[in-house]
Amino acid sequence: ETGVTQTPRHLVMGMTNKKSLKCEQHLGHNAMYWYKQSAKKPLELMFVYNFKEQTENNSVPSRFSPECPNSSHLFLHLHTLQPEDSALYLCASSQSLGGGKAGELFFGEGSRLTVL
Amino acid sequence: AQTVTQSQPEMSVQEAETVTLSCTYDTSESDYYLFWYKQPPSRQMILVIRQEAYKQQNATENRFSVNFQKAAKSFSLKISDSQLGDAAMYFCAHRPGSNYKLTFGKGTLLTVNP
Q1: Do B106 and A40 touch (CB under 8 A)?
Q2: Which residues of A touch B50 (CB under 8 A)?
Q3: Cα distance between residue B50 and residue B92, in whole Å
Q4: Which residues of A touch B106 (CB under 8 A)?
Q5: pLDDT tens figures, A79-112
Q6: A64, A114, B37, B40: which has the highest count of C-beta atoms within 10 A?
Q7: Nearest chain A Cα to B43, which residue?
Q8: Torsion (CA) A37, A52, B46, A28 in degrees, nearest 10
Q9: Given CB atoms, is A13 within the 8 Å cutoff of chain B?
């Protein structure tokens, strides 16, 4: 039991496809995050949700559309992606958005996305 | 804005030996936290150790310890008695005390040789 589960683990899609990434946390946390991890680059924060309300969109292109139906589930809907969007997408959760131990992140294993 | 620099893209260590991973950071915050995360080949990122900036004592977690030099803005990770399971990508990260925004370094890939 990892606490934060992401599906699918691997996804290959064409530039015109529509697909979704799913994240589920079993930790009772209130905040959830999407990060993008590209080779040789620092992790990039994409979106943040707190109590299922979006609190941050870090200038992410509209071809990425997040959805948070409740505090336990987070989706990333993908549409008309570009090859440069190929990366590992990590979901994370935390008890709260604040500082201290309550704000510490727990990560999922990631979804490896390849855009052809 | 915060920056985190890991100057060693790759490191290797012999099993049972000690290795130190370097990290420097830049911040204008007076209250902040520093972290080392480990990402094994299975890819789940896990927290190895955390350090509160207001604490002078270096954090320790079993075989993992840090050397926190606040004035120099340096935060290195020492792994003692290295084990094969320590092989992973290690990320240094900074977070202001007031919010959730983590800034990561680019990572150091650690190889442990038997």
Answers
A1: yes
A2: 104
A3: 10
A4: 40-42
A5: 999 999 999 999 999 998 876 777 889 999 999 9
A6: B37
A7: A109
A8: -160
A9: no
Which of A40, A43, A48 is closest, CB to CB, to B100?
A48
Measure the CA–CA gap between A63 and A83, rounded to whole angstroms: 13
Selecting from A88, A99, A105 the residue whose C-beta is nearest the C-beta of B98 gives A99
Amino acid B41: pLDDT: 84
Q: Which residues of B touch A89 (CB under 8 A)?
A: none
Mapping DSSP to helix (H, G, I), strand (E, B) and coil, where does residue A113 land? strand
CA distance B58 to B68: 6
Q: For residue A1, what pLDDT band results from cuts at 50, 70 and 90?
A: low
Show Cβ contacts of residue A8 under 8 Å, excluding neighbours closer than 6 positions.
A21, A111
Q: Which residues of B touch A (CB under 8 A)?
A: 4, 9, 31, 33, 42-47, 50, 91, 95-107
pLDDT tens for A26-63 read: 999 999 999 999 988 889 999 999 999 999 999 999 99
Per-residue pLDDT, averaged over B70-88, amounts to 97
pLDDT value for A102: 76
**Neighbouring C-beta atoms of residue B44, cutoff 10 Å:** 17
Please classify residue B16 by burial: count the beta carbons closer than 10 Å to its beta carbon, then call 0-12 exposed, 13-18 middle and 19+ buried: exposed
The type of residue at B74 is S
Q: Give residues with Cβ within 8 angstroms of B65, minimum separation 6.
A: B49, B58, B59, B77, B78, B80
Residue B78 near residue B67, CB atoms below 8 Å: yes
